[in-house]
Amino acid sequence: MKKLTMSIPRDTDGSLSSCLMFSKPRHPHLLNDSEVSSVVPCQNGWVYDKSDFKSTLATEWDLVCSRKGMNKATATIFFIGVMLGAPTFGYLSDRFGRRPLLLVSYLTTMTFAVLSALSTSYVMFGIMRFFTGMSTAGISIISIVLNLEWLGVEQRTLFGVLFSLDWTIGSCILVAAAYMVNEWRLLILAVTSPLILAVVAWRWLPESGRWLVANGKVDDAHYYINQCAEMNNRCMCMATITPRTLLESVDTNTNDNKYTFIDLFKTANLRKLAICTGIVWFGVAFTYYGITLNITGFGLNLHLTQFIFIAIEIPMKIALYFLIEYVGRRLSQSGTLLSTGLFLFINMFVTKDKWIIRTVVGVLGKAVSEASFTIIFFYTIELYPTVIRQNGLGYTSFVARLAVALSPLIMLFEDVWPLLPPMIYCGMAVVSGLVALLLPETQDTRMPEFIEDLDKPREKLTKGKVI
């Protein structure tokens, strides 16, 4: 240790610096103000702790000390890709259909993920992660819409929660994969491999019946609805439903329109909806990824901490189903966001040595934050009309990914004031929770088909009546 103190200066907390060294060895008691200039960056590279990971981006390209921001930037680059991919795939799937664009998302995600694993430089990796993010956006927004548009009013809440549970179970598998595969290139390939099964299963997916009818493709719609009726033993219900009756249900003056992102702001009701959902999505994503990407200071192994934070979501989401059924979407959305802000506020004043309390409060904050993410996905789908639903979800996902891109960078403000990052996360959760109260309730109501439907009172349905 004495030899180290002659070569390495100390940080403000008294520990030996991991980024600086003296240009010439000297005894610390002889150090005076005139010698501070002799402190220089480490000249001989770094020795890394490989107890958790054999190799990471940081160890591959020395993304430490003055280059540590580049480590955070990789997450930002990925989510910028997701941010741009969401409105792109949203527009294309409203224009050409859900099913073909889902396949495009699968194939492009696999391609760019493999190229990421084969990257030979940080720049190449950043570019490949950008395009991987763009492709991944299509999977998340198209798959949930394609499923939800086939469900009746009584299944929508249950499916929304089950869809989110898939996310949780996948995250648990991801932690297990990261524990077993501790080399970053192999880890990327391992977590991308399930998409091979998704591509195989895609051939049995039907196109959205709602999208087909809303776009006048009644023959295809009738074919898929017949298949659905046979699967559910409801063939008798199809006796009076023909392609002609489906065509008569479509406003021919409306279904020829090709809507874009700009159309979200053309009418007063749609504009209000777009602004409010945009703010809520920003707050949900900003706080969720702020917690998820910065789980530190809890005194536990990294993998164990991540697993605890994910596993707590399972009972929370089961309870969430009953909460939504009892109080509705709007109050549940607002309540979970305000609760997230409360837990973030509490943890600001719990010191790191009280790691048990910090872990409990942090886990609860992560759980209600994930609950808010669960609600907003299917809540948004119920709010937007079919003809512009993917554009709406693409737009809100764009705003969310903008929040996600900014969220990791907020932690850099720790150097200014340690409490500033949690204060920003807390404030955003509270603001977005209050804005959620401005949204209409959609529980047990008919999903709108056309933009004009937003000007009509939402019809309250008896469960099992219509989809």
Report what the structure shows.
- With 467 residues, the chain is an all-alpha fold.
- Among the domains are: 2-41, no CATH class; 156-207 and 262-455, Growth Hormone, Chain: A (Up-down Bundle), CATH 1.20.1250.
- It contains 18 helices and 2 strands.
- The protein has a two-stranded antiparallel ribbon.
- Helix 6 (153-180) crosses helix 16.
- The longest helix has 29 residues, at 355-383.
- The chain is globular, with a radius of gyration of 25 Å.
- The chain starts with a helix and ends in a 32-residue tail after the last helix.
Say how many strands there are.
2
For the sheet with most strands, the description reads:
2 strands, antiparallel
Report the order of strands and helices. HEEHHHHHHHHHHHHHHHHH
Radius of gyration: 25 Å
User: What's the overall average pLDDT, rounded?
Assistant: 78
The percentage of residues in β strands lies in under 5%
Task: Look at the structure and name the CATH superfamily of the domain at 156-207 and 262-455.
Answer: MFS general substrate transporter like domains
Q: What CATH first level of the domain at 156-207 and 262-455 would be assigned?
A: Mainly Alpha
Across the major sheet, the strand order is: 1-2
Contiguous uncertain segments of 5+ residues: 33-37
The share of residues in helices is 55-70%
Distance between the first and last residues' Cα: 72 Å
The CATH topology annotation of the domain at 156-207 and 262-455 reads as Growth Hormone, Chain: A
- Going by helix content, strand content and strand pairing, the class is mainly alpha
Tertiary shape = globular
CATH architecture of the domain at 156-207 and 262-455: Up-down Bundle
